[in-house]
Amino acid sequence: MTATNASGIDLSGRDEEVRPQDDFYRAWHGQWLEEFDIPADKAEYASFIKLRDESLEQLRDIISHLTDSAPSLETPGGKVAGLFADFMNTDAINDRGLEQLGPLIQRIDDIDDATDLAAIFGEFDRDGIGAPLGSFVHQDNRDSSRYLLDIRQSGLGLPDRDYYLDDRFAEILAGYRNHVATMWQLAGLGNEAIATKVADQIVTLESRIAEKQWDNVRNRDPQATYNLLPLADAAAQSPGLDLAVFLTSSHAPEAVDSINVGQPDYLTSLGILMSDQDLATWRNYLKFHLISNFAPYLPGELDRENFAFYGTALTGVQEQRPRWKRGVDVVQGALGEALGQEYVKRHFPPENKTRMLELVGNLIDAFAESIDSLAWMSPQTKSEAHAKLGTFRSKIGYPDLWRDYSALIIEPNDLIGNLIRAAQFDHDRDMAKLGGPIDREEWFMPPQMVNAYYNPEMNEIVFPAAILQPPFFTMTADDAVNYGAIGAVIGHEISHGFDDKGCQYDGEGNLRDWWTEEDHEAFAERTTALVEQYAEYEPVAGHPVNGELTLGENIADLSGIAVAMRAYLKSLHGQEPPVIDDLTGEQRFFVGYSQVWRAKTRPEESVRRIAIDPHSPPEFRVQGVLVNNDAFVEAFDVQPGDGMWRDPDDRVRIW
Predict the structure, then answer these.
(1) This prediction's pTM
(2) Cβ distance 282 to 120 under 8 Å?
(3) Using an 8 Å Cβ cutoff, are 598 and 528 in contact?
(4) Same CATH topology for 98-297 and 359-399+449-655?
(5) What architecture is domain 98-297?
(6) Which residues are bridge partners to 149 per DSSP?
(7) What is the pLDDT of residues 532-574, one digit of tens each?
(8) How many angstroms separate the CA atoms of 645 and 313, rounded?
């Protein structure tokens, strides 16, 4: 998206025949939506994706430089270059076939009882391979001064449990069954008749697993998913699963004496399923997940079939991305900060960080004023909200301390071995946190990632370097545009600390109820209205937006833009902003916001995202927010009868 005028706004895709008062999104992007063709290798094209493509080009140049300088495989740069070269060496991959999976396939064949099955679940968890149970380490939600081991449901080959249980996905489920059979044959594990039988077994088993799993809405509830138990009590909840063996095989420290069980009844059901499902089916299930997990790194026919299902059938993408782009992503997944350190040296000017810190400070001040202005919140709860906001921490650009990859071994011509060691490195690094102090300098995204996040347990907002580029942030753009774009993103992340999940954590990152009962009721009234509003949107026929799943992100969008507008107006110090490109300052603010979310998505990808993504589709991140915003209504003189009009009493205002 290229700025083509004085304000820094790109107006090239505007549809002059659509009034902003009737359909704001299409007024500014309608022509682009009609004329733009999504690239064949993409499920969606949007601002985020454009920046990611540009970032990939920059990262390829960095890798090429590292390759030309031939650093040792003992150095971070050498590991980056070596892993990329391994992925790009398709001749070696084709020559080796499934040879590198041989020991793991044999390991599966050697399973002879439920205890051994629990052990391989743990091994797969550590190796980064799909299994019905996964573990991770994070801060204790009720004592953020310590780390805690968490176990959660996992193990499905389709994106979500609904794909197995909801008739709307019956065609995809049938396609998945065919995909499993095809992969079985391509891997040389049996003829068509055997493969068909095995596929039926695997899909039936996964369907049984799906029946016992929690849905995405329930999994968003931090209270429901906090179930801290002594290890013995957790094991007693699932007698068919040897939990101690699972944890030992996953390399959990021996000192672990308690764990958080994310979905207790799932753990019980998994133990029952392990006992009553024959081992032969479990072995087949594990073999398929092993092959599926590594299919992108196996000979071409397996890679192509894997893409045909997970790329084309599930997301509508017609072509695989160029191999070098996939290779850069492989390196980012394994050595993100090693690559990011080089990225920052070349592509993140110090003045960007300085300007961002200023913007973040302004947004936090504006949020504080917003708290004071809330008519529905009591003074007691406002005081607690201020206390939480006062402990917010901002991380901009890149970490002050870079991750040490010296323990990760990268060997030439050993792609799958390198990927397994990388997964083990990350897993073991997490396990090593248990019992130690909280690392408040840790980042959970590398600086070259075009994204941002709020971490409730740290009570921090994090903005990697790569997002600080147009259209999100432009050093030379009009302030109105920057506040509408990156300002709204900053406000969004701040607001996550006060959305339906974040508001359950206090300033120290602990789950604690700091609300009065009356404030809970007033908040719930507003969030219920937002759930109902978004549930009316239906981007694809028969697939409405899940207002409960997307609630947290919708609150953050709604509150973020309101706070960003407040911050923009404060930045004017009472002065009237100039009219630029025939737009007032307030109008440029909202157009700047909309261009951040300009996107075109394939129907298949929309369906997938509606099922699993807590974010609303891009169009409704604009439309759904603006109809509730009084400043927008005033800026564009929206009147009753206009498409963007919502009666003042029906507008949802939260923070």
Answers:
(1) 0.95
(2) no
(3) no
(4) no
(5) Orthogonal Bundle (1.10)
(6) 137
(7) 999 999 999 999 999 999 999 999 999 999 999 999 999 999 9
(8) 38
